[in-house]
Design goal:
By secondary structure, this protein is of the alpha+beta class. The chain has two domains: about 350 residues, 3-Layer(aba) Sandwich (Beta-lactamase), CATH 3.40.710.10; about 90 residues, Beta Barrel (Lipocalin), CATH 2.40.128.210. It is about 30% helix and about 25% strand. The strands form five sheets. It has a nine-stranded antiparallel sheet, sandwiched between helices. The chain has an eight-stranded antiparallel β-barrel with strand order 16-17-18-19-20-21-22-23. Helix 1 packs antiparallel against helix 12, helix 2 runs parallel beside helix 6 and helix 2 crosses helix 7. It is globular, with a radius of gyration of 24 Å. It starts with a helix and ends with a strand. About 0% of the residues have low confidence.
Length: about 450
């Protein structure tokens, strides 16, 4: 589908509505459709100064950085400097996981399939730097990371390839592999071998570069009082797992390389064979209420969306979040960046944009929005006959909760049975702990919820 003015309007309307609902100060978007490119900035990169968000605004792309790390590892593999099936300890200047059986390989870390659960190191580093935590786990150096990782070996719950556990520490270690193999710092290697050849000269890991830039985000924490400005977490230990800052304009070049067989402006950044290895599904990863099967490769997830195979990744660094996705079969790509982190995956917003580009409707095509629309329809004030019982139904993530105003004191969850926007079957949890079906009648604007003796009529919106 061509990027017509109507498509652009629908995208901007979708994003504007999302920003207002979620309290996102600024959003930047790039869409690649064949030879066409559509870029837009909405809202503000800094609310106090009301500086506009633009396609050139630098944001933290968080875990979308992982595909850059994976690209670097595959480049080194192409140069026969390592093999992804080597034990990771073979390419580190320190002993690590020597007692692991089976051995933990580079492949295992790239695909989050080592059997080691996530150990929370990145979360600890981020929250400490943002002043949100006083946790004192020793994570001040790479040596601390080695000790942290070595100690986590007892947590291993399965063999390679059997389980998916998202583990940021694994990518921090891959960044160290790149450093030890090349003799060059991780950030320098990425800059010289990936960013510079892709004309991504403003993309950076470094605080000083961002401070000197004329168009960079102010990150925000979402609070009950609205978005609050925050520092941005810069820490070299986070770089390989989630430390890159970039703009949608420069990420357009990255998308074109992905869609053009690894080539950009006549230079082969990575072979098509290596791209295919990155995009192969090595382990299954399910998203909450989505009924689609998701696979993880090397820095990319794969899933079917609207009959097409989509490769994507999301990122969340508490004060900034990102989505990068592309459909090789349609020669379409999307880069979406914002200076907040909502309490759900930005994939739902990115796929909403993809839905519009493909001629669809986000409410029908993206399960998250199907559920959200259904839940929002039920939120509001409810009363029984003569208001003997009254209360409020509010949305909490992907469920609803009813809370009475007072006596009789009643609180119960309403959990949807499906993602179908027209299916109003719900269940709750009985006092004994069993699942109990709830009757919910929806007839246009007339909505009733039944619980035991009570028939509750919706009398007002939230």
């Amino acid at each position: 589908m061509a990027l017509t003015s109507e498509v652009e309007f629908r995208i901007e309307n979708f994003l504007s509505n999302w920003m207002e609902r979620e309290g996102a100060p600024g959003v930047s978007l790039s869409v690649v459709d064949g030879d066409e490119t559509y870029e837009v900035g909405l809202g503000s990169r800094n609310l106090r100064e009301n500086d506009p968000a633009t396609p050139d605004t630098l944001y933290g792309i968080a875990s979308c950085s992982k595909s850059f790390t994976a690209t670097a590892i595959l480049k080194l593999a192409e140069e026969d400097k390592l093999n992804v099936h080597d034990p990771v300890g073979d390419h580190l200047d320190t002993a690590l996981w020597e007692s692991a059986d089976p051995q933990i390989t580079i492949h295992d870390l790239l695909s989050h399939s080592s059997g080691l659960p996530g150990d929370g190191s990145a979360f600890l580093l981020l929250t400490r730097e943002l002043g949100l935590s006083n946790a004192t786990s020793p994570l001040g150096s790479m040596e601390d990371i080695y000790r942290f990782a070595e100690g986590s070996l007892d947590e291993r719950v399965s063999g390679p390839g059997e389980s998916f556990f998202y583990c940021n520490t694994g990518y921090t270690l891959l960044g160290q592999v790149i450093k030890d193999v090349t003799g060059e710092s991780y950030a320098s290697y990425i800059q010289n071998n990936i960013l510079d050849p892709l004309d991504m000269g403003r993309s950076t890991f470094h605080e000083a570069d961002v401070a000197a830039d004329h168009d960079a985000l102010t990150g925000y924490l979402l609070t009950e009082d609205g978005p609050e400005p925050s520092e941005f977490p810069y820490d070299p230990l986070i770089y390989p797992a989630g430390g890159l800052l970039s703009s949608v304009s420069e990420l357009t070049n990255y998308l074109r390389m992905q869609l053009n067989g690894g080539e950009y402006n006549g230079e082969q950044i990575l072979s098509q064979e290596s791209l295919n290895r990155m995009r192969e599904g090595y382990v299954e990863w399910d998203y909450a209420l989505s009924s689609s099967n998701n696979q993880y490769g090397y820095g990319w997830t794969m899933r079917e969306f609207m009959g097409e195979e989509v490769f994507s990744h999301i990122g969340d660094i508490i004060v900034s979040s990102a989505y990068i996705g592309f459909i090789p079969g349609q020669d379409i790509g999307v880069a979406l960046l914002t200076n907040v982190s909502p309490d759900y995956l930005l994939q739902s917003v990115g796929e909403g944009v993809l839905s519009i580009v493909l001629g669809g409707n986000p409410s029908a095509d993206v399960p998250f929005w199907s559920v959200r629309e259904k839940l929002d329809r039920l939120t509001g004030r409810y009363e029984s006959y003569r208001s003997v019982l009254s209360g409020t139904v509010s949305r909490e993530g992907t469920t609803l909760k009813f809370r009475s105003d007072g006596a009789p004191a009643i609180t119960f969850p309403l959990v949807p049975n499906s993602t179908d926007p027209e299916d109003f079957s719900f269940h709750t949890r009985a006092e004994e702990g069993d699942t109990k079906e709830l009757r919910v009648d929806v007839d246009g604007e007339k909505i009733d919820i039944y619980l035991g003796r009570w028939r509750l009529h919706k009398v007002a919106d939230k």
